[in-house]
Amino acid sequence: MKNKKEKRKIWIICFSLIFLGILIVGTIGVGSIDISVGEIIDTFLGKGDEINDSIIMDMRLPRILLAVFVGASLSISGALLQSVMRNPLADPGITGVSSGGSLAAILMMLYFPQFYRLLPLMSFLGAMLACGLVFILSWDNGIKPIRVILSGVAINAMFAGATSLLAIMNSDKIQGVLLWINGSIAYRGWREVSYFLPYCIVGLILALFCIRGANLLALGDDVATNLGMNVNRARICISLVAVFLAGISTSAVGIIGFIGIIVPHVCRLIVGSDYKYLIPMSTILGGIILLLADTLARYIARPIELPVGVMMAMIGCPFFLFLLRRRKYSA
């Protein structure tokens, strides 16, 4: 019976991966200018016209790749943070991690633009600072779930205030990053992909090594300790991976909230709480959801493109309130 359930989960993950591939091809043709499937195929075969080649290869394909990998990274980050903080509402955005990464990235873009290649690492350091502050403020003989949320709200507000201060002090420069602050994949090209993707691949591989530790932490500190795990070391290592994934994602597209809450919860309903299946499923479903949200953002008000962060907020906020109202997530 157990083997049958495991096979079912593997088949679900495989079908989800196939669906993601189909979705990538399908969304290439959607935008302010619609492109047919035949024209897309011609472009990949080298037979397309110059305009379609430019739209697909220079504008839409890098944007789609960013949406898929950023969605995957933020989803895994949320899943790992939920295990580490023992809070089902933990998320890079709500816990202030994304705000810390955003502030650090904006500082570099405004004052040290010549070091643009180091933007993911700088964002990671800012996210790590925010996560460290949340841990310190929420620690009271252990991690208290409700204190995580309250500390995260406070840290989020502090870094958001600092970001607003930067905007006021640099009003002549801030226009170039305003869209980025709201969380947007628009106008992203191969340069952003080349900076982000290597870090992302490293982060996704590291997340696979966190599966056993995340499963044990989800059982509680006492059980994990009795099973021979160094809880504090595991919590720090898994947190670093989660913060790394959130920080590099923020450096690429800005702050995109709620996906780290939505995806892990949906994946638990589909494949259960075992991180052996939860991590791969979150990777795929995170890419699917953010890609769909970005496609909707560039289609719903065309030719105007809405920031994908706005779309995720509209989707994620009601979901977050629903979880908050549920009795078993109240503390």
For the secondary structure, the number of strands is 0
In what range is the share of β-strand residues? under 5%
First-last Cα distance: 34 Å
Low-confidence stretches: 327-331
Shape: globular
What structural category arises from helix and sheet content? mainly alpha
Number of DSSP helical runs: 14
Biggest sheet architecture: none
Work out the count of structural domains: 1
The CATH architecture can be given as: Orthogonal Bundle
| CATH topology grouping | ABC transporter involved in vitamin B12 uptake, BtuC
CATH class category:
Mainly Alpha
The CATH superfamily is known as ABC transporter involved in vitamin B12 uptake, BtuC
Gyration radius from CA atoms, angstroms: 20 Å
